Amino acid sequence: MHTATTAAPGAAARTGTRTTRVIGVLALATTAFVVVSAFFLTPADSVQGDSVRIMYVHVPTAWVAYLAFITTAVASGFSLARRHRTLGFDRVAGASGEVGVLFMAMTLLTGSLWGRLTWGTFWQWDPRLTTTLFLFVTYVGYLAVRRIDTDPRQRARRSAVIALLAVLEIPLVHFSVVLWRSLHQEASVLSPDGDVRLDDLMLFTLFAGVAAFTLIFAWLVIHRQRLTALADIRQTVGLDAAIALRRSETRGVVK
User: What would the pLDDT profile of 79-105 be if each residue is shown by its tens digit?
Assistant: First the structure.
């Protein structure tokens, strides 16, 4: 019936809830602090000078990309174990994979800029850079596989297997600096010798950057998996049911 698709103006277009609004406000506030501290409060590095300020984006995006890919793997594992009950874990896995690819792209971009300032070139076939690029391409392939099958359950099964295999690349990327002779510097915080090579404000700003990008990651994943859920519902039971679900979320029925 036509009355089932009538909604308040803009209600069906919104994907936010009170939780996502709180996360969004915290993300904006933390990001604002990181920007101010990174550019105006923290000192320049004694060796790299002002180029070290790229670290406050480069390192957090890398760590959050790892978090995203691990989340994809964990959610995929639950998806395989509970494949006959719910597709919720698969949607989280896909959303997290998409956001992880975005953050990994930011890591490669900021790393290239940092490399240009430090090494004099945007790219070197260095072990850390090469393995990071391979990890990025792997998850681009994962996202491509998710688009092959139109049936949500087939999509969940195939993509889950790839996600569980792809996550094994993360230790290789992280420890590549130790395993091979690399131009890339070793970790400034979690270094093998346990020594922290940053002063207190630089370290705090770096951790604030990790917190800010983690909040952004959570905000994006929540919204993206909701969109995937609506797309699946539209495909399986029709547009009216998808709109009805969206309405119930805007009223706070579905959390």
Answer: 888 755 668 899 999 999 999 999 999
Structure tokens at 76: 């995929």
Q: In Å, what is the CA distance from 193 to each residue of 48, 197, 252?
A: 22, 11, 50
Contact of 152 with 90, CB cutoff 8 Å: yes
Helix locations, 82-199, DSSP H: 88-118, 127-146, 152-166, 169-174, 176-179
Q: Where are the domains of the chain?
A: 19-248
Q: How much is the pTM?
A: 0.80
Q: Is the dihedral of CA 54, 56, 61, 63 positive or negative?
A: positive
- Helices 152-166 and 127-146: crossing angle in degrees, nearest 10, is 170
Q: Does domain 19-248 have CATH number 1.20.120?
A: yes
Based on its alpha-carbon atoms, the radius of gyration of the chain, rounded to whole angstroms, reads 21
Question: What's the pLDDT tens digit per position in 8-59?
Answer: 444 444 556 888 999 999 999 999 999 999 999 998 887 788 888 999 999 9
- Mean pLDDT for the stretch of residues 215-235: 86
Cα–Cα dist 99/107, whole Å = 12
Distance (Å, whole) CA 52 – CA 205: 12
188-194, Cβ contacts within 8 angstroms, sequence gap of 24 or more? 188/55, 188/59
